Amino acid sequence: LRRPAPGDPPAEVAARVRWETAPDALADAALVVECGPERMDVKERILRTLDAACGPDTVLASCTSAIPVEILAGHTGRPDRVLATHFMNPAHLKDAVEVVRGPRTSEESLATVLALLDAIGKRAHLVRDSPGFVSNRVLMPMINDAAARVEEGTADAETVDLVFTDCFGHAMGPLRTADLIGLDTVLDSLVVLRETTGDPRFEPTALLRGLVERGHRGRKSGRGFHTYGTR
């Protein structure tokens, strides 16, 4: 791998990508990053498939945003070669990645992932394994609480976000952040955190559930807590 050069022609970049659809194509891969939806059953199915298809030395990294690495590793026969690489959204614009080492992740596997992230120009922030890690253990209850303030009529979504941008200097308020992440992903993450921690703070608000049920998933669908341009 080489560090990407800004301004590389799109055709040249695309030519470096090999497109495959069969899991067996990953047999010789040194590292695989899975980015399936944040649902336990989906992650389990993906990891079992990868574990069967990949060589014994392949490192399996999950782009999970909330599920503990130890749970994910338990779906494979290589727990020492499983960890999490939580790329922030949108990944192509964010330089930082939250790297989560499980209790059985080997030094070799961690070194493989850190070398890859360095090669592609990403900064790795290493944290210990825990539901939601650092990022979403803090962010998800804030989003949920912000949604609750809208639900109870304390303020509308725009005002809630302005309090954070204008008063606290945040680049983006919690509800616009949720829209950027995708409300379906936020909902899935809250469900996982509620199940894995037992903490009622992670119980999704009725407002959030209702938006997702109606197909309002945030910026990608044109509407979430806020309304965006038509797509």
β-strand percent reads: 5-15%
Largest sheet, strands/sense/barrel: 5 strands, mixed
Give the CA-based shape: globular
- Stated plainly, the CATH topology of the largest domain is called Rossmann fold
- List the domain count as a whole number: 2
- Tell me which oligomeric state these chains represent: single chain
At the fourth level of CATH, the homologous superfamily of the largest domain is NAD(P)-binding Rossmann-like Domain
Largest sheet, spatial ordering of strands? 1-2-3-4-5
The average pLDDT score comes to: 95
- CATH architecture field of the largest domain: 3-Layer(aba) Sandwich
Total strand count, please?
A: 5
Question: Which secondary structure elements does this structure contain, and how are they paired or packed?
Answer:
Layout: H1 10-15, E1 31-34, H2 40-53, E2 59-62, H3 69-73, E3 82-87, E4 96-101, H4 107-119, E5 123-128, H5 135-151, H6 157-167, H7 174-181, H8 183-197, H9 206-213
Task: Explain what this protein looks like in three dimensions.
With 231 residues, the chain is of the alpha/beta class. The protein is built from 9 helices and 5 strands. The two termini are 36 Å apart. The mean pLDDT is 95.
